[in-house]
Amino acid sequence: MEVNLAGYNVDAEVLGEMSKKCGKSDELTPEIIAAAYARISRDPRPIKEIRKDARSEVERTRRSNSTIIFRMGHHSVAEHAVFNLDIVGVSRLAMEELEKFRLSAYTEKSQRYITLDKDHVLPKEIAGTEFEASFRDIIKQQNETYFLLFDKLKKHVFEKHAEIAKDHKKHEMLEGWAKEDARYITALATESQVGQTVNARTLELMLRRFASHPLEEIRELGRAIYEKIANVAPSIVLFNEANDRDQKTYPELKTLANTIKQKATPSEGPGKDVELVEYTQNADNIIAASLLHTSTNCPYKDCLSIAHEMSETEKSDLFRAAGKNIQFYDSMLREFEYVNLTFNIILSSACFGQLKRHRMATITAQPYDPSLGITIPESIKEIGEETLFQDIAARSAELYSKILVSYPEVAPYILTNAHRKRVLIRSNARELYHISRLREDAHAQWDIQNISRAMTEQARKVMPQTFALAGGKDRYNEIYENVYGTAPKVTKAVLPGAKKIANCP
Q1: Taking every pair of C-alpha atoms in the chain, what is the biggest distance, in angstroms?
Q2: pLDDT tens for each residue of 345-387
Q3: What pLDDT sits at residue 502?
Q4: How many Å apart are CA 242 and CA 239, to the nearest integer?
Q5: Which of 439, 453, 460, 475 is catalytic?
Q6: Which of 8, 77, 125 is CA-nearest to residue 404?
Q7: What is the predicted pLDDT for the residue at 270?
Q8: Which pLDDT value is given to residue 126?
Q9: Which pLDDT tens digit goes with each residue over 483-498?
Q10: Model pLDDT for residues 39-80, shown as the tens digit of each residue
Q11: What is the per-residue pLDDT for 317?
Q12: 3-state SS string over 425-482?
């Protein structure tokens, strides 16, 4: 056996300093790794030799990439080239577009931990129009309210949690609680920054989507990213221009959907904040059958038949064995991915910023809709500033309505973190466990705690065996003891009944 470290992320400024000292080298490109790995399937030489060959003739390597990736259609080769991007000064609204891409890693400036300044993005679409002055005025009011709320909330939090405040090491945490609630009045135009790690295949898709986007800020972001990577890796990011699929599909769907909607009978009211609208029927049996399938030599249809015939005790034993050796930091077994749950959720922008990070789920969202109301932190009510908060949010929504007539895509910039939208999220049981562990934890932000707890409670009603161990990681020991009657510990467990059903019907 042999393992070689072929490469790793290096700060581009370090590479720049090396180039100044040693002379510029064409070898400093991720295309070499991509091209070398692309040849593995057809070149019998050791990988180390293939990489050396790729480094020796960079232009030939680039031609090889173009042939393999684009002419032969092996696009996965581009996934071996990885970029780290500093993205600074983009709006929170633009962040929602940036962070839609599953196969990418993001670490964003947190409004929960960092005191906000007054930085914001003025959409170019309304710069110089009759809306610019009003836009700036509302942003100013929002920011002034943020600082007023932050000062009052900080005092309130320290008084409310006086025992915790005695420990100076906890002061930063307490200030964070004040910040996270004060930020609900700031706009989606507020500037943010993010560190992104993305492979070339996903990046190319991102650039096409951005080039096709109706917002100028998104298109500008796409151009800025392409400008930075085009000379570094020209052979693996080629199809980056606007296209009909991304420009026209959703607008055409919207037109058609609105025509169809006019014939439908509207429901009363906006609906529940969290509603389980669809789920896999007989989910506990399906996962039980999947566990049996992994643990025996029976075909799945026989395993499913056996699962239907099992007693509740036998089924419980099977699920208990599946979870017995799992710690709070472990994921559930992969068999839990065979069942799904779909939720319709009405949530704040602040909450959506956290939910959208669960990219293994399928998440689609409607535009922000002021008619859905706002989410007001309880602490704002406790300090007696609910009326002020509502007034600023209402002024923001009023300007939104005016901008919406002429610039519908731009209008959401002026809405606040408290304004809400509808989201449809579909998750398999394994991913919902992850959401539950992370977002129901006592250290999670209260808004996403409430949403994830409601999701778990509804999931447990329709899949009781499947979600017996669901809950925040801070309560894991308690949950485990309720199921097993003992504290969790690492042991080896054999799925019960495996020997019994070894001979399939």
Answers
A1: 78
A2: 999 999 999 999 998 999 999 999 999 999 999 999 999 999 9
A3: 45
A4: 9
A5: 439
A6: 125
A7: 79
A8: 97
A9: 999 988 754 545 555 5
A10: 766 778 887 887 787 777 666 666 666 666 555 555 677 777
A11: 95
A12: EEEEHHHHHHHHHHHCCCCCCHHHHHHHHHHHHHHHHHCCCCCCCCCCHHHHHHHHHH
Which residues have C-beta within 8 Å of that of residue 57, sequence separation ≥ 6? Answer: none
DSSP state letters, 128-166: TSTTHHHHHHHHHHHHHHHHHHHHHHHHHHHHHTHHHHT
pLDDT > 90: what percent of the chain?
Answer: 66
Give the SS3 label for residue 191: strand
CA distance 290 to 283: 10
Q: What is the mean pLDDT of residues 408-433?
A: 98
Distance of alpha carbon 274 from alpha carbon 248, whole angstroms: 31
How far is the C-alpha of 116 from the C-alpha of 113, rounded, in Å?
A: 9
Adjacent-strand bridge partners of 341 = 279, 427
Task: Give the span between the Cα atoms of 136 and 128, in whole angstroms.
Answer: 12
Indicate the domain borders of the chain: 12-80
List C-alpha distances in Å: 281 to 319, 339, 341, 343: 17, 8, 10, 15
Locate 388 and state its tokens: 């002020």
In this structure, what is the dihedral angle of CA atoms 216, 363, 433, 181, given to the nearest 10 degrees?
Answer: 50
Q: Are 321 and 493 in contact (CB under 8 A)?
A: yes
Q: What pLDDT is recorded for position 338?
A: 98
Is the separation of the CB atoms in 298 and 504 below 8 Å?
A: yes
Residue 61: predicted pLDDT = 63
42 catalytic? Reply is no
Alpha-carbon span 142 to 187, nearest angstrom: 7
- Cα separation, 88 vs 144, in Å, equals 23
* Angle of CA points 100, 105, 109, to nearest 5°: 85
Q: Decide: 221 and 85 in contact? Cβ < 8 Å.
A: no
CA 366, 370, 372, 374 dihedral sign is: positive
Query: pLDDT band at residue 310, thresholds of 50, 70 and 90?
Result: very high
pLDDT value for 8: 66
For residue 476, which of 325, 327, 320 has the smallest C-alpha distance? 327
Q: If you average pLDDT over every residue of the chain, what do you get?
A: 88
DSSP 192-258: EEEEEEEEHHHHHHHHHHHHT-SSHHHHHHHHHHHHHHTTT-TTT----S--HHHHHHHHHHHHHHH
